[in-house]
Every structure is written in structure tokens, then in C-alpha cells.
Amino acid sequence: HQWLIERGIYVPAIRPPTVPQDTSRLRISFSALHQDKDVMTLMKNISDFESQSDAH
After folding, report:
1. Homologous superfamily of 2-55 in CATH?
2. What residue spans define the domains of the chain?
């Protein structure tokens, strides 16, 4: 969540009690104003985060 915010991507975290304990998640929403490059930027940042997390 914070990783994406620091990169200018707002993806709200969904936490208990909205979802069951230990099942927190991110809510990704798109609108007609988003462009292909916005989706690609999001995907790259998620991939970068995953790679960085795997390295630790």
C-alpha cells in the first residue's frame, strides 16, 4: 500500500473489520479516464514490489 502511494498510485487498503482478520487486500479501481500507460505503470510497480519483497 505505502509502496504504491510513494510512487503516486492511490490504491486503498481494505482492512478488518471490512474484511476478515488476516485477509487484508488492496482495492484497485479503474475509470474511463485511465489510459493504458496508467495500467502498465501499476503493473510494473506491483511487479517491482513483488521482486523487492522476494529479495528480502
Report:
1. Aspartate Aminotransferase, domain 1 (3.90.1150.10)
2. 2-55
Q: Give which of 6, 30, 27 is closest to 18, Cα–Cα.
A: 27
Distance CA 35, CA 10 (A): 15
The pLDDT value given to residue 56: 64
pTM: 0.75
Widest distance between CA atoms in the chain: 37
Q: In sequence order, which residues have a C-beta less than 8 Å from that of residue 35 and are 6 or more positions away?
A: none
The C-alpha cell at 32 is: 474511463
CA distance 30 to 43: 13
